[in-house]
Design brief:
Blueprint lengths: L5 H13 L6 H8 L3 H13 L3 E3 L5 E3 L1 H24 L7 H8 L5 H11 L16 H6 L3 E2 L7 E8 L4 H10 L6 E7 L5 E5 L2 E5 L1 H4 L2 E5 L1
Antiparallel strand pairs: 1-2, 3-8, 4-5, 4-8, 5-6, 6-7
Helix pairs in contact: 1-2, 1-4, 2-3, 4-5, 4-6
Bound molecules: zinc ion (2 copies).
The site of one zinc ion has 7 residues, from loops.
Length: about 220
């Protein structure tokens, strides 16, 4: 069992907010896969440290100090993923968990080195962007969830949900990865999509299709 650190909590709050979720302790228990009492204890500590504010309706909000640490951890996560992929050639579907561990060990000096070495790139190997995080922002750029694609349309995979290793393994096996071009043949009555990637045709369930952002080609 890995310990869920203060940084993980702050990051989860920032990420859940960015995805448009109302952050209450149940949200965090779900996101971090920890028990409700563990979340309650952690929030108490974070509040004492001035990292979060808890409203009377139970909603958790980051203070500016809490947000700063969350953003820094998210940035380091992004850099570590790029380092593992671009420097060490680790497969894109394996790097997220590794980055979850390593992000906490990155010092300010090492962060600077990583930025120098890797250069600016707003997107991680899963296609997720540092600046375009909310569904509303994505839609403004013309992105949509693959589950909403119409039969007869063509699209390019922009990004995939990266916090579920089994899902990433599945996507990799099906050829669904950032940059892949898909032809959606039909949107079926049972909620599945019939898609083709190159010469391969497959049926994709809604649970998976909802985890992919796409754009028209
Ligand atoms: Zn990641
Ligand atoms: Zn990523």
């Amino acid at each position: 069992m890995i310990t869920v650190s203060k940084e993980d909590y702050l990051k989860a709050i920032a990420e859940a907010e960015a995805e448009g979720e109302t952050v209450i302790s149940a949200t965090l228990a779900h996101w971090l896969a920890v028990t409700r009492p563990a979340v309650t204890a952690a929030l108490k500590r974070l509040k004492k440290d001035g990292m979060v504010a808890i409203r009377s309706d139970g909603r958790v909000q980051l203070t500016s100090q809490g947000r700063q640490i969350a953003e820094q951890t998210i940035f380091r996560h992004h850099l570590v993923e790029r380092m593992l992929s671009e420097i060490f050639g680790m497969p894109w579907y394996e790097i997220h968990e590794e980055a979850e561990r390593l992000e906490h060990a990155v010092s300010r000096a090492f962060e600077k080195k990583l930025v120098e070495k890797l250069g600016d790139n707003d997107t991680c190997p899963h296609g997720n962007s540092l600046t375009l995080r909310s569904p509303a922002d994505r839609r403004k750029k013309g992105q949509y969830l693959l589950s909403e694609a119409e039969g007869g349309s063509q699209c390019r995979v922009v990004s995939v949900y990266e916090r579920d290793r089994k899902l990433l393994d599945f996507f990799e096996a099906e050829g669904i990865r950032p940059g892949a071009r898909l032809a959606v043949q039909s949107s079926n009555y049972d909620g599945t999509l019939s898609i083709s990637i190159g010469k391969r045709t497959t049926r994709l369930g809604a649970a998976a299709a909802e985890k992919v952002w796409a754009e028209k080609t």
